[in-house]
């Protein structure tokens, strides 16, 4: 590479993310795996991963993975909202998130938790009739609201009492799903109002407003590396339940940052020099403070730069088989189970190896048996609607869902790539 090429643009996001030639699949897989790695520490040893200490208690590896996923989701989901009808958009989002989630809830609640209860008590007596049993957990979690509590029949609480577990939830990673769904709802409303196509400047304006709130909180924080904002204030949203104002602002900011990159992709340069500066800014803020204000935008740019600049072989990963969502929805439960069964005795690397093996196996089953079949229904149209469109000359309703030029929300080949992961 010529030295001066570092200071020249490679092109725009619209030019370089014009089809399936991107590394979003790899990035999602790395982010999902990072969540599993991060959870090894609190679930089996009772303390956060090393990044928490090295960042001055600003963030940890799992939280940064969440930020990355919200950036990528903002970019890809906004593209989906721009190119499809509102009804089709909602159907796509439901088919990508809910079947896999419901499958994981059934497996964890009706298979894994009974097994662990039997292992603890040598009987299933009391498991199904427990006041906070499987039915309560399922009815309170199916919509991501988590209003049914975090435990099933006291299984995890018993593990905490025995000293094998350090977190009281069956699957604490599900906490951010409702924030993801809230962001999906916002994009749907913006699409319905024509904002994404005719008034796109509103999105960066809201993004800047949220950034201003984070900046103000950071200025008021007791130190440069303090966590800004009041994390106790909540907002109750129908169906989704109570939501933290802190996470609405922070996760909403990075999601809309990704949405802004999507809406202005023809103006955003993919520049190696800017990526280098972004990496430097991110590392500096991790070390000395300001990761929320400066580090988040820098990290967001780095992710999109990587999506365009990683070598060709990396772009094939996740194109046909996207296990990232499955890794997210199963990883926490697998690690809680292993901790309860005493696998911490194998050390962190041994525990991580067992956790990844179990998690990837369940993720693969989830993809092949649930997620991929569900995504094959993404272009399905109910008979009455299809006949109505046919009479009006609208066809079957699937034509409107073809990818538009410059849009990357198409990989894997037969599935929407936008997934949601959180620690």
Structural topology:
Elements: E1 9-12, H1 13-16, H2 24-44, H3 50-54, H4 61-83, H5 86-121, H6 134-141, H7 155-162, H8 177-192, H9 195-198, H10 202-220, E2 234-237, E3 241-244, H11 245-263, E4 269-271, H12 272-288, H13 291-309, H14 324-340, H15 347-375, H16 383-391
Antiparallel strand pairs: 1-4, 2-3
Kindly describe this structure.
This protein has 423 residues and is mainly α. The chain is 60% helix and 4% strand. The protein contains 16 helices and four strands. A two-stranded antiparallel sheet has the order 1-4. The chain has a two-stranded antiparallel sheet with strand order 2-3. Helix 2 (24-44) packs antiparallel against helix 4, helix 10 crosses helix 11 and helix 11 (245-263) packs parallel to helix 13 (291-309). The protein is globular. The chain starts with 8 loop residues before the first strand and ends in a 32-residue tail after the last helix. The model is unreliable at 394-423 (pLDDT under 50). This is Acyltransferase. Residues 24-366 form the Acyltransferase domain. One of its GO terms (molecular function) is acyltransferase activity, transferring groups other than amino-acyl groups. The chain crosses the membrane at residues 21-41, 61-79, 100-119, 179-197, 202-219, 239-261, 268-288, 349-370.
Percent in helix: 55-70%
| Overall pLDDT | 87
Low-confidence stretches: 394-423
Structural class: mainly alpha
Please give the number of β-strands. 4
Number of domains: 1
Order of helices and strands: EHHHHHHHHHHEEHEHHHHH
The percent range for strand residues is: under 5%
Q: What general outline do the C-alpha atoms trace?
A: globular
Distance between the termini: 39 Å
Largest sheet: 2 strands, antiparallel
* Tally of helical segments: 16
Rg over CA atoms, rounded to whole Å, is 22 Å
């Amino acid at each position: 590479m010529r030295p001066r090429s570092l200071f020249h643009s490679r092109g725009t996001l619209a030019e370089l993310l014009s089809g399936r030639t991107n590394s979003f699949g790899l990035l999602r897989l790395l982010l999902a795996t990072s969540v599993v790695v991060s959870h090894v520490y609190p679930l089996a040893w009772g303390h956060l991963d090393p990044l928490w200490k090295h960042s001055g208690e600003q963030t940890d590896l799992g939280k940064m993975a969440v930020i990355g996923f919200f950036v990528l989701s903002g970019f890809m989901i906004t593209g989906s909202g721009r190119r499809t009808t509102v009804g089709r958009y909602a159907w796509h989002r439901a088919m990508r998130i809910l079947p896999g989630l419901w499958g994981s809830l059934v497996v964890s609640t009706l298979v894994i938790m009974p097994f662990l209860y039997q292992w603890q008590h040598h009987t299933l007596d009391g498991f199904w009739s427990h006041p906070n049993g499987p039915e309560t957990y399922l009815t309170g979690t199916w919509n991501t609201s988590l209003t049914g509590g975090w435990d099933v029949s006291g299984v995890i609480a018993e593990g905490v009492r025995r000293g094998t577990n350090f977190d009281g939830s069956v699957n604490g990673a599900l906490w951010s799903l409702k924030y993801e769904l809230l962001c999906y709802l916002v994009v749907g409303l913006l699409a319905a109002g024509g904002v994404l196509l005719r008034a796109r400047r509103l999105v960066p304006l809201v993004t800047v407003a949220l950034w201003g709130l984070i900046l103000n909180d950071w200025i008021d924080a007791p130190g440069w590396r303090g966590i800004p904002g009041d994390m106790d204030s909540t907002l109750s949203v129908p169906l989704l339940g109570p939501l933290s104002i802190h996470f609405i602002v922070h996760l909403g900011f990075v999601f809309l940052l990704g949405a802004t990159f999507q809406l202005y992709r023809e103006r955003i340069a993919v520049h190696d020099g800017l990526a280098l500066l972004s990496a430097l800014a991110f590392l500096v803020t991790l070390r000395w403070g300001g990761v929320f204000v400066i580090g988040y935008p820098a990290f967001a740019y780095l992710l999109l730069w990587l999506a365009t600049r990683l070598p060709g072989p990396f772009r094939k990963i996740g194109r046909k088989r996207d296990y990232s969502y499955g890794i997210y929805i199963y990883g926490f439960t697998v690690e809680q189970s292993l901790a309860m069964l005493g696998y911490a005795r194998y050390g962190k690397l041994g525990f991580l190896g067992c956790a990844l093996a179990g998690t990837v196996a369940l993720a693969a089953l989830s993809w092949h048996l649930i997620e991929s079949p569900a995504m094959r229904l993404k272009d399905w149209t109910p008979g009455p609607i299809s006949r109505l469109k046919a009479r009006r000359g609208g066809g079957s309703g699937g034509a409107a869902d073809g990818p538009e030029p410059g849009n990357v929300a198409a990989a894997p080949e037969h599935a929407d790539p936008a997934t949601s992961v959180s620690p």
